[in-house]
Amino acid sequence: MESMQKSATLVSSSMARLYSGKHLSDPKLIAEVIRNAVTVKRPKTRYLVGFMAKPMVYFKNIFGDKAYDRLVGMINKGDSKERRKS
Question: What is the pLDDT of residues 35-54, one digit of tens each?
Fold first, then answer.
């Protein structure tokens, strides 16, 4: 249970840092996609907008869930090492 809590905390802090940085999408773009999704007759299952949405889904589709999970884990571990340096 403790390791799950550590993982959740790590992912949470990583996401908070990512979404408070320069990689944010223009809110108007996101709003336009949402407006389109709720007004079309047959909305898509997923809308890939925002920083790294398409490359991450492409990676997951090509390499599978395990490789994707490893990649996300490596990114999060790298972020935690950078935080320790500061």
Answer: 999 999 999 988 999 878 88
Which tokens is 56 given?
């991450």
> Can you read off the two tokens belonging to residue 80?
């935690």
51: CB partners within 8 A, 6+ apart: 18, 23, 24, 25
Residue 13's CB is within 10 A of a number of other CB atoms, namely 14
Can you state the angle between helices 53-85 and 2-18, rounded to 10 degrees?
Answer: 110
**Unique residue bearing structure tokens 């223009």:** 26
Predicted local distance difference test score (pLDDT) of residue 22:
72
- CB of 79 closer than 8 Å to CB of 14: yes
Instruction: Give domain limits for the chain.
Output: 2-85
Distance CA 26, CA 53 (A): 14
